[in-house]
């Protein structure tokens, strides 16, 4: 296939010029491809994971093992998406040396995108090995830079309440009256 800039382009949804490897808290939402409900179901306002949901939950909690400068905060696996807060701690410190040997990829701090990509890859591989051979995530992910305690508390509450509000969730294909976009800001 020949590349055509007018047809083959993706607009970035990231904040232009922002360094996603710097310390801070980030709210991420990652959806399954076509928003298929594959991780379980919500019953009486509580999320009940199936094996795939338990596997995705386990993969999420393994993120700090791969990225030691990261801590996890509030998190939920929903039927077709995950919401979580990733807290990036102390900046990555590569050895200081003016030589070119310290300029490669191994001496750069991981970005939020790199962490999400790693999570998605590990979860996909495990789900496919477990028999979900066609499993896929939606391309990309949603993120929000958390800038203060008030916002952090509001997002934590949104994540904790997400199963109880499933019937209004914008990601729920059966929602008849979906909540507004960015409902977590209200």
CATH topology, by name, is Alpha-Beta Plaits
Query: Oligomerization state of this entry?
Result: single chain
Portion of residues in beta strands equals 15-25%
> Biggest sheet: strands, sense, closure?
4 strands, antiparallel
> How are helices and strands ordered from N to C?
EEEHHEEHEH
Mean pLDDT: 84
Taking strands numbered 1, 2, ... along the chain, how are they ordered across the largest sheet? 4-5-1-6
Low-confidence regions: 90-107
The CATH homologous superfamily: Transposase IS200-like
Share of residues in helices: 10-25%
| Rg calc | 18 Å
CATH architecture: 2-Layer Sandwich
Number of domain units: 1
Helical run tally: 4
The helix-and-strand class reads: alpha+beta
End-to-end gap:
45 Å
Number of E-state strands: 6
Summarize the structure.
The chain is of the alpha+beta class and 186 residues long.
Your description of this structure?
The chain is an alpha+beta fold and 186 residues long. It has a single domain, classed as Transposase IS200-like (Alpha-Beta Plaits), CATH 3.30.70. The chain is built from four helices and six strands. The strands form two sheets. It has a four-stranded antiparallel β-sheet, sandwiched between helices. Strands 2-3 form a two-stranded antiparallel sheet. A hairpin with a 3-residue loop joins strand 4 and strand 5. Helix 1 packs antiparallel against helix 3. The protein is globular and about 35 Å long. About 10% of the residues have low confidence.
């Amino acid at each position: 296939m020949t590349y055509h800039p007018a047809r083959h382009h993706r607009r970035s949804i990231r904040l232009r010029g922002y360094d996603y490897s710097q310390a801070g808290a980030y709210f991420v939402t990652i959806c399954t491809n076509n928003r298929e409900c594959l991780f379980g179901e919500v019953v009486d306002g509580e999320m009940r994971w199936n094996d795939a949901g338990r596997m995705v939950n386990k993969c999420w909690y393994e993120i700090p093992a791969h990225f030691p400068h990261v801590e996890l905060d509030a998190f939920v696996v929903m039927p077709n998406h995950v919401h979580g807060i990733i807290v990036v701690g102390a900046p990555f410190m590569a050895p200081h040396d003016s030589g070119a040997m310290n300029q490669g990829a191994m001496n750069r701090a991981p970005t939020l995108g790199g962490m999400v990509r790693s999570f998605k890859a590990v979860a996909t591989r495990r789900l496919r090995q477990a028999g979900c051979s066609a499993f896929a995530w939606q391309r990309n992910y949603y993120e929000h830079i958390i800038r203060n305690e008030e916002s952090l508390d509001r997002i934590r509450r949104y994540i904790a309440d997400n199963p109880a509000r499933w019937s209004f969730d914008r990601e729920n294909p059966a929602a008849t009256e979906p909540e507004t976009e960015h409902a977590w800001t209200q």
